[in-house]
Design goal:
By secondary structure, this protein is of the alpha/beta class. The strands form two sheets. A five-stranded parallel β-sheet has the order 5-1-6-7-8, covered by helices on one side. Strands 2-4-3 form a three-stranded mixed β-sheet, with helices on one face. Helix content is about 25%, strand content about 20%. It has two domains: about 110 residues, Response regulator (Rossmann fold, 3-Layer(aba) Sandwich); about 80 residues, Roll (Ubiquitin-like (UB roll)). It is elongated, with a radius of gyration of 21 Å. The N and C termini lie close together (about 5 Å). It is built from six helices and eight strands, in the order E-E-H-H-E-E-H-E-H-E-H-E-E-H. Helix 4 packs parallel to helix 5.
Length: about 220
């Protein structure tokens, strides 16, 4: 039986869709964006994704900043979503559909994007090296999988996760006598180790991940045939 690795990573690829329906109703820059909703996010938080996009929702406060819709800008944002996920190791993620809903008075739009994240590339590469890999989109799901299945040889842990982040997951794992002895390798884009709040780990790698270094790190922690 090959060694089991439990991995939690971020990443993606996206299909660029054609936008129609808003142009012509009002000049670009004159249609206010009232909301921007993302469906299907598990590996990242909406606020993380919003930081790389030019299209954003207007402030709900009367005196707050107004954001206006521009088609070219929105189409560029679809590409930015692809790049954002690609940089985090998700080559199969895509925008499956989007809805730019124009208000009855044609003065504002509500935007909804449906995203399929797919599986992280790193997990697939580890599998090709002969490891049995299981993935989870956040710390809460990871705990459920770990409690229901045979414990893995090592956990590869991303710190920046929705629902339950890496620090919270590690505290929960260490408090469970059935899971506390599983080695943990932290993989993060949050910065250098000295600048990140302390977390107990058996290994530490920064993103973008050097795959050879990753294998060299998890190899000694895994029981191979």
């Amino acid at each position: 039986m090959c060694a089991r690795v439990f991995a939690r990573f971020l990443g993606t690829s996206v299909v660029l869709l054609t936008l129609a329906g808003v142009a012509g109703c009002k000049e670009e820059g004159g249609v206010k964006v009232t909301s921007m909703t993302f469906n299907g996010l598990q590996a990242v938080k909406p606020n993380q994704l919003k930081t790389v996009l030019a299209t954003n929702a207007s402030s709900k406060l009367p005196w707050g900043e107004k954001q206006y819709f521009a088609r070219d800008q929105f189409e560029a944002d679809l590409k930015r979503i692809v790049a954002f996920y690609h940089d985090r190791g998700y080559p199969d993620a895509r925008v499956t559909s989007f809805d730019v809903k124009l208000s009855d008075d044609q003065k504002s739009v509500a935007i909804t994007l449906n995203i399929s994240e797919g599986q992280p590339l790193v997990a697939e590469r580890i599998e090709l090296e002969g490891f049995d890999v299981h993935t989870a989109a956040n710390g809460e799901l990871a705990l459920k999988v770990l409690q229901d299945e045979e414990p893995p040889s090592v956990i590869i842990l991303d710190l920046m996760m929705p629902v339950m982040n890496g620090w919270q997951f590690r505290l929960a794992q260490q408090s469970d006598p059935n899971l506390s002895q599983i080695p943990v390798v932290v993989v993060t884009a949050a910065g250098v180790r000295e600048d990140i709040p302390a977390i107990s780990a058996d290994g530490w790698l920064s993103k973008p991940v050097d795959f050879d270094r990753l294998l060299a790190t998890i190899g000694p922690l895994c029981q191979r045939e």
